[in-house]
Design goal:
Largest sheet of chain C: 2 strands, antiparallel
Radius of gyration of chain B: 24 Å
Chains: A alpha/beta, B alpha/beta, C mainly alpha
Radius of gyration of chain C: 19 Å
Oligomer: heterotetramer
Number of domains of chain B: 3
CATH class of the largest domain in chain B: Alpha Beta
CATH superfamily of the largest domain in chain B: P-loop containing nucleotide triphosphate hydrolases
Helix content of chain B: 25-40%
Shape of chain C: globular
Bound molecules: adenosine-5'-triphosphate, magnesium ion
């Protein structure tokens, strides 16, 4: 049933598909760039597709279904839903398209039930990242802090794992009090507004954890507007370029770096190995790192 | 003869499936009142819409003062001094009366409106017209006749530059008092040299103000003549290509049992102590000046509006209507005053409009409409009322008079026994009027009762068995057909006469009624 | 009306021809089935939306009702109820939410836009609240068959879509309720004065939209093997676009279900084609926007009467 | 009309009283200034939206135009142009996008919903394309003053909002253009027959909406010190909600800017209050939805004529 794909593959370079959650977020933009770099280097054609909204797993499923029609050789995917995407991956399996899972793990049990096995998983753990941020907060505050949290879109898996990790890390510390936790929907301007409002109710907040840097950057502007720059530690997630600049400027304390560029690169490299029939390890873990003022120069280099 | 102010020659216009105008000529002299006559759908409004720039003509030419002109849009028409009062009202409901009058022509500097001068000019214009309408009131607060007066005022907003004034049935919503004022104004304008086209279905008006007449039939000229050289029956036979013996062919039916009785109906600020009855075989006329509350009575007894006080009986049984559907179930049908707003679903075809009140019957208990069932229901109605349309035509494509007939047809098709007709012959041609009167005769002969609200006194006097006269939300007087004269009805409508001039069956009945 | 439907159909055919010329992957049986299956959810939501828009209203809450009825379904199934119980319950939830819209619009005389905007927020919040924001996943094969089964070579969602359209078309064209939908949309006052019980039919119209949203949720849940409280985001825009591309007037009173189906297919074909062609995501948004406007433009030009 | 504005104002006052009773943080000068500042962006977008809705249209593209004109601004500033050059350029971009909407709607006789839905997708795609999906951040203090400066104790965005409202109010109530907006919305045919140049004014109306979107983008970019291609998502719903809560009829022809401002404030106060009270994220959506419907319901009940 893949006659079209075969004739295509015979004449042209093999096609590797990278299906992202979205391309609206710098995180995935970086991932694509890493992947593109590897594709150019290794002589494969890279097809990048993404839904318009990060959480739209049904649209992602459609993209997978459509790409299968074109006879791609390998499918790299950052699942918008760790269980929901399995239906699409079953279809990929039935069409003999090997799958490489990036950034967000498949739900192990559900994947086993569905009989889906990714060739490999490339990424870092959001829950671990959250814990890293939490432990960092404990260290730098000396175990005593009044914390405000900016949550992501309610019901969003990635945001939830990061938050759980952070909460678990500070839970054991009696001095670490989470005084407010509000959703800012992963948006910069909502991060601003929500944190501005939070400061009204809790002027003594001294530490902010934002589930993504976009919200953290909004909070930084709210802090500046309140004239409290330097008095409130801001810890973000993703180590976006803007965040690193803020860390260098001292307006932000730290951000958890996930190195999406590396993930993208590794994804395409692994895909080529699959095409060549080489075997892959079950997991390719990309490091997680706390980017602080001390490390930021190095971190910036690493992700490019 | 001096050069005509306006010449339209060989005008053609077709719509998908209809040739509305087929080479029509019209010549207007400065200072004349030129009456345009024709049956419903003859093409009068279409011809005037071409003049107004609302439609593009397919062929033909238009000359003003002998020079050919191109009218590509409403602005061109205005610039040429052409002013049009359209048949279907075209006001902006949420804007004030004053703003509507000067819409598109407000006094302004650098785009900033001079409100003081705008108001002052509106007040002057309205008082010229002799109407007491608040210039600051939004138009959607006005009743239909008042809107009509605003529409007239709007066409006269800058009379200085007007050379041609078109009035498409301006009096169809007016009562005699406003008609008199309007006619005075038309005469003044004509004296000043304005060429006036006057479209009407009220033949009595034709001789009051017209100088010449042009008759159209089926989109073609039939004739143009000096009015002095024609007779009413001559005009009628030109329009309809047949003779009408009697304009008010009233045929008294045997009066039977009481069908509907209202007792002391009232609604704060609108209606007070409305009591009357309608019996089988009876046509009860209702007269009154603009805003007297006749429409409110019609709505109150058909479930369209709630009432605060009073009781309603159908065939002696007390009823209370929560919605028009309840009244329809009791066999009451309302022909509303404003067909565009309340009568028609313009996007639905003729058959479905006619069948709408009868949906339950057409469909049967399961609610499934058999194919062509509506067309089957509508076909005889279209034939009987001589509606110039096919069952499948969208009603918005019909001429005004034919739309009116469709609204009427909705009730004729059903099994209503009590009809409330609010201005039933508005915009209907003379032939169709007689058909409607004959239809009313047939209905009463079959035992129905009719409440006929009308602003045309001759029709009320000609067709009613009894006449109720309203004044400021009350029933001011009641006349038997024999006792009613134009003068007596008018003075009651003005509130000059005593409360009841003749014996009133409804009131007597109420006085004698034993509680319980 | 016929010319109009025709116009949109021409748009669809042209689009297909263009894609056929551009990519060999487009015109294959498996891809066309693929498109039909992917279109089914939007098409079903759009069928209910067509009722609402024909009646002169709008329903922004469809996406949230998809989410809410979906999680009701998910929770019922996980609580151990069989699909025979869970499905009626979830459909009731959708119908109820829709009817609530209709009641508020009718009794409160509120603008449909605002009521359904409120419901959009409320139903979404409720879906998140009862699941604590977590998806509910993993259902039995018997239930998942609603998305995965094939009858002959036709996928179940396509069959469900076809059934919905046949029934809805019958209701709209052959029943009094259908007539009333058009009459209310064309002129609500005239309809009321003609004896149409608006208080009964308006809530029913929005309930239909709730019903189709629930049916879409059923397919979606089976398809993803998961009921997500964040499902259905932006479905309202897709459904409205399909309806309007299909020639239904947002003023109400005019339109057909066949048009809506064609509208939904245009969107489905377009998305599929852009994926097949490997058009970049950003460019896709531009092309989709352009085609939406273009499709309606072609249609309007074809339909425009000479005046 | 007056009663109606009054009704919404009552809603705002009641909301404030409730929040005052529930939390001591609400009624402080700094918090009220916060609210005013946070409201400014939505309020400015809603001012243009009010023009469009008054004229009987709708503009779904405002959020995307915010993003597009924002990134145009960001790129111009980063390319080294001074704000004196960059601001006119970005405003031109917004006005152009709006005017394009208007031209398509007017000349193509297309439904505003569809045209602006298309533009929503196109402008968003364009913003993403020219930035490759990345934000453009870090601007000079001279530019950032547009968001951070204070005149007396009044934040600059609040001043800009006030200016926009004063000018827009003047235009709507005192100029021929403003009255044509109402006339076109109230009865387009009548306006045309009265000689109003629809072909001129309709594009202008949508251009106004593009203009206010660009002004909002200016504040947003200065405020966040970043121009993002994904900025402004869902702004259309907030702006429409503010307009309709403020008593403007979606049918066109009726409404005031004062109402829209109150509507925007209701939404701003509500979001602020929910943050202050620490209401959970799921519940927030339910409460916001409820208040939107409730506000309009109260207003409608107060305004309703007895029939
Ligand atoms: N927009 C339209 N589309 C299709 N047909 C139309 C349209 N407007 C008018 N017609 C048709 O053109 C013919 C002439 O209509 P017109 O309105 O000019 O009649 P009229 O003489 O003014 O009648 P009335 O006395 O009833 O107002 C009618 O058959 C009508 O159905
Ligand atoms: N929609 C409306 N809104 C506000 N006031 C109205 C409305 N319709 C009518 N009125 C007012 O109610 C009063 C009675 O009007 P109604 O239409 O019943 O009078 P009428 O006797 O039927 O006169 P006509 O039929 O000649 O208009 C008038 O003062 C009128 O201004
Ligand atoms: Mg006419
Ligand atoms: Mg009346």
């Amino acid at each position: 049933n893949r006659a079209g794909g075969d004739s295509n593959a015979a004449t042209a370079r093999p096609v590797v598909a990278l299906v992202l959650k979205t391309l609206n977020h710098p995180f995935f933009v970086d991932m694509r760039r890493g992947a593109q770099e590897a594709a150019d280097r290794l002589g494969v054609t890279l097809q990048v597709q993404a839904a318009e909204r990060e959480v739209d797993v049904e649209k992602q499923m459609q993209i997978v279904e459509n790409l299968i029609q074109t006879g791609v050789r390998v499918l790299c995917i950052t699942p918008s839903g760790s269980r929901e995407i399995l239906s699409a991956l079953v279809k990929a399996k039935n069409a003999n398209v090997p799958v490489i899972v990036v950034d967000t793990r498949l739900d192990a049990k559900a994947a086993a039930d569905a009989g889906v096995r990714g060739e490999t998983f490339i990424g870092s753990d959001n829950y671990e990242g959250g814990r890293l941020a939490g432990r960092h907060a404990v260290t730098v505050t000396g175990g005593k802090a009044r914390i405000g949290i900016l949550e992501g879109i309610a019901g969003h898996e990635t945001a939830d794992s990061r938050l759980r990790g952070f909460r678990d890390a500070v839970a054991g510390e009696p001095g670490m009090a989470i005084v407010a936790s509000q959703p800012a929907n992963w948006e910069r301007d909502q991060g601003f507004n929500v944190f501005q409002n939070m400061l009204q109710a809790h002027p003594n907040i001294d530490t902010v954890f934002a589930a993504s840097d976009l919200m953290a950057l909004g909070a930084i502007e709210a802090i500046a507007a309140a004239g409290k720059t330097g008095k409130i530690r801001v810890i973000g997630f993703d180590a976006l370029d803007d965040a690193k600049r803020a860390i260098d400027a001292g307006t932000m304390d730290a951000s958890v770096a996930q190195f999406p560029y590396e993930m993208g690169k590794a994804a395409v490299e692994s895909a080529v190995k699959v095409i060549n029939g080489e075997s892959l390890p079950a997991d390719i873990m990309v490091k997680l790192e706390m980017v602080t003022k001390a490390t930021s120069g190095k971190a910036t280099e690493g992700s490019r | 003869m001096e050069r005509p102010a306006l010449t339209m020659a060989g005008i053609r216009k077709s719509f998908p499936g209809v040739v509305a105008l087929d080479g029509v000529d019209l010549t207007l002299q400065a200072g004349e009142v030129h009456v345009l006559l024709g049956e419903n759908g003859a093409g009068k409004s279409t011809l005037m819409k071409i003049l107004a720039g609302a439609y593009r003509r397919d062929a033909g030419e238009i000359l003003m003062q002998g020079r050919p002109v191109d009218i590509a849009g409403p602005r061109d028409a205005r610039a040429l001094g052409i002013r049009v009062i359209h048949q279907e009202l075209s006001l902006v409901p949420s804007l004030s009366v004053a703003e509507n009058i000067f819409l598109g022509a407000a006094p302004s500097r650098f785009g900033v409106i001079d409100w003081a001068s705008l108001r002052a000019r509106a007040i002057r214009l309205l008082s010229d017209l002799g109407v007491a309408i608040d210039p600051d009131a939004p138009v959607n607060r006005l009743a239909l006749p008042q809107r009509q007066m605003v529409e007239i005022a709007k066409a006269l907003a800058d009379q200085q530059s007007a050379s041609v004034l078109v009035m498409d049935e301006p009096t169809s919503a007016l009562t005699s008092r406003e008609v008199d004022v309007l006619f005075g104004l038309i005469e003044r304008l004509a004296k000043r040299g304005v060429a006036i086209v006057y479209i009407t279905h009220r033949l009595d008006e034709v001789y009051r103000i017209g100088h010449r007449v042009t008759v159209l039939r089926d989109g073609r000229n039939v004739s143009t003549a000096m009015l002095g050289d024609t007779s009413v029956s001559g005009l009628v036979s030109m329009m309809a290509n047949r003779d009408l013996a009697d304009h008010y062919p009233k045929q008294p039916a045997p009066i039977g049992n009481e069908l509907l009785r209202a007792e002391g109906l009232g609604r704060a600020g609108v209606l007070e102590d409305i009591s009357f009855s309608i019996r089988a075989g009876e046509i009860v006329g209702m007269a009154g000046l603009m805003g007297a509350g006749r429409t409110d009575v019609a709505r109150a007894i058909t479930g369209a509006d709630r009432v605060d006080r009073g009781r309603l009986f159908v065939r002696g049984r007390a009823v209370s209507f929560r919605a028009p559907a309840d009244a329809i179930r009791e066999g009451i049908g309302l022909l509303p005053e404003d067909r565009k707003a309340h009568g028609l679903v313009a996007l639905l075809n003729v058959a479905r409009n006619i069948a709408l009140p009868q949906s339950r019957k057409v469909a049967g208990p399961a609610g499934i409409v058999p194919r062509r069932a509506e067309a089957a229901l509508a076909a005889p109605v279209i034939r009987d009322l001589r509606i110039k349309a096919t069952p499948d035509q969208q009603t918005r494509q019909l001429s005004g008079g034919n739309q009116q007939k469709v609204v009427l047809g909705k009730w004729v098709a059903g099994d209503a026994r009590i009809f409330v007709f609010d201005e039933p012959t508005r915009g209907v041609d003379i032939g169709a009027k007689v058909e409607i009167y004959q239809l009313m005769n047939r209905l009463t002969a079959a035992g129905a009762g009719i409440l006929m609200i009308s602003s045309e006194l001759p029709e009320l006097l000609g067709m009613s068995d009894r006449i109720l006269v309203m004044h400021r939300g009350r029933i001011q007087a009641e006349f038997t057909a024999a006792a009613a004269t134009q003068e007596r009805v008018l003075s009651a409508a003005l509130g000059l006469a005593g409360p009841v001039l003749s014996e009133s069956p409804a009131r007597t009945a109420r006085a004698n009624r034993v509680e319980g | 009306m016929k010319a109009r439907r025709f116009g949109t159909l021409i748009g669809l055919v042209v689009l297909c021809l263009v894609l056929w010329a551009l990519t060999p992957f487009f015109l294959t049986v498996s891809n066309l089935l693929n498109i039909a299956e992917q279109t089914s959810i939007n098409a079903i939501v759009a069928a209910g939306m067509t009722f609402v828009i024909l009646s002169g209203g709008i329903d922004l809450s469809v996406g949230s009702i998809v989410a809410l009825s979906g999680v009701v379904l998910g929770l019922s199934l996980h609580a151990g109820y069989s699909p025979a119980v869970a499905l009626p319950v979830m459909i009731a939830a959708g119908v109820l939410a829709g009817a609530t819209n209709g009641l508020l619009i009718d009794r409160g005389r509120l603008p449909p836009f605002i009521v359904t905007l409120g419901m959009m927020s409320i139903a979404r919040g409720a879906a998140l609240l009862i699941t604590e924001g977590r998806p509910i996943s993993g259902f039995e094969e018997s239930f998942r068959a609603l998305a995965t089964a094939r009858v002959g070579f036709v996928p179940a969602p396509v069959l469900i879509m076809a059934t919905v359209y046949l029934v809805a078309h019958f209701v709209l064209t052959r029943t009094t309720f259908g007539r009333y939908v058009y009459a209310i949309g064309g002129n609500e006052d005239a309809a009321r004065l003609s004896g149409v019980r608006i208080h009964l039919h308006k809530p029913a119209i929005y309930a239909v939209s709730g019903l189709t949203s629930a049916l879409a949720a059923m397919i979606l849940t089976a398809r993803l093997n998961s009921a997500q409280p964040i499902a259905g985001t932006m479905y309202e825009l897709d459904a409205i676009a399909a309806t309007v591309i299909g020639g239904t007037s947002l003023m109400g009173g005019e339109g057909t279900l066949a048009g809506t189906l064609i509208g939904a297919l245009i969107m489905g074909v377009l998305r599929n084609g852009l994926n097949l062609l490997g058009v970049s995501s950003f460019l896709q948004q531009i092309v989709i926007g352009g085609v939406i406007v273009g499709a309606v433009l072609v249609d309007t030009v074809l339909k425009r009467p000479r005046t």
